[in-house]
Design goal:
The complex is a heterodimer. In chain A, 34% of the residues lie in helices and 30% in strands. By secondary structure, chain A is of the alpha+beta class. In chain A, the strands form 2 sheets. Chain A has a 5-stranded antiparallel β-sheet. In chain A, strands 3-10-9-8-5 form a 5-stranded antiparallel β-sheet, with no helix packed on it. In chain A, strand 1 (68-69) and strand 2 form a beta hairpin. Chain A has helices spanning 4-11, 17-58, 84-88, 90-94, and strands at 68-69, 72-73, 79-81, 99-105, 110-114, 118-121, 130-136, 144-151, 154-162, 168-172. The radius of gyration of chain B is 17 Å and the shape is globular. Chain B is mainly α. In chain B, helix 1 (8-30) packs across helix 3, helix 2 (33-50) packs across helix 3 (57-78) and helix 3 (57-78) crosses helix 7. Classes of the chains: A alpha+beta, B mainly alpha. Chains A and B meet through helix 1, helix 2, helix 3 and helix 4 of A and helix 1, helix 2, helix 3, helix 5 and helix 6 of B.
Chain lengths: 175, 162
Amino acid sequence: MFSKETIDLYHSIRAPQSVMDAIDRKMDQPAATSSKRKNILSPVLAAAACLAVILWAGVLSPESDMLIVNGNKISNAAVAVYDENASRSAVAFASNNAFSLTLSLPKNSQALSVSIGELLESEDSVKSGRNFTWLIPSATEETTATLTFSIDEKVLSYTLHADTNGVWYMEKTSN
Amino acid sequence: MGHYNISKPTIEMIYNRYADMLYRLAYTHLSSQSDAEDAVSDVFVTYLQTAPAFRDEEHEKAWFVRVLINKCNDLHRKKAVRAYTPLEEVVHMEHVDEESSDVLHAVQRLPEKYRAAVLLHYFEGFSVDEIAKIQKSTTAAVKMRLMRSRGLLKAQLKGAEH
C-alpha cells in the first residue's frame, strides 16, 4: 500500500528536544511553586495548622470510618489509586501483574476481608490506626476486587477496579 | 522529580521508548509542531499523574497511543485555528521525495478515524485487533476503515495527478 520511501519519510519525524523540556517543566512546576511560597507563607501556614488542630480536636470529630489509600481518602466518588512499587520500576511491573496498595484504616476496624489477594498489616499500625499492604497477585484491567471491614457494628465495602486505560480506581460502595 | 512518584530515569526510559512514535502520530494528526509538542507532553504528564499499571509492554504502548489520540481530538475541538507547520519542516531527510510527501499529505487529509487506523496499521505496525482495542471499536470496523482509507487515498492521489 505504501512505499518504503513514504514510510521512511514518516519515520524521519522525531520528537524535538522541546518536548522533553516541556515535560521537565511540567514535572517541576508544582515543586518550584511550593518552594518559592514556602518562606512567605510559613507563619501563615503555622497559624492555620494550629487552628486546624484546635478545630479538629475540639469541634469537628474525625470520621470514624475513613479509609485512606496512598494518602487519599476514599469516598463514594471513585478516586484514582496507584501501585507505589510499580511506579518505582515500570520494567519490573511490566513482567509481573501483581498490584499492591497501601491502606490506612481506623484503629477500631474489625473483620477485614478482601475478595482477591491478601492484606499484610504493617508494624507501625499502633499509633496511626491500622496500616496494611493489599497485595493482588495477578491484576488485569478486568479485575474487580472488594475490601470489607466493620466498625461500630457498621459494615463498609470498597471496590477496586481499573478502566480501559489501566488506571486503577477505588470507591466506597456501601452507605 | 517534583511531586510525582515516578523517577527521572524511569520517565526517560519511557520517553525514549515512545516519544518519537507519539510525536509522529500527533504531528500527522494536527499538522502543527507546537500542538504536537503539547499533545505529547500532556500524555507524559497524564502518565506521571496516574501512574497506570500495565499488564505488559503491548498494553503500555496501546495506553500511550490511546491517550495521545484523545489529546489530539481534544486539541482539535478546542482550537479552531492552529499554527500550521509544513511537513518539510519536521522531517529529517536530506532529500524529500515528492511522491512520498504527497502521500503523507493525503494521509493527513483523511478523516480522523481513518487517518489513525492508517497510521497505526501501515506506518506503526499495529495489528487490526490492537487498533480495534485502541479505538474502542471492532475488528470489522477497523478493516472497513482501512479499506475506505485506501479508496480515499487513491482518489486523492489520482486527483492530484490531474
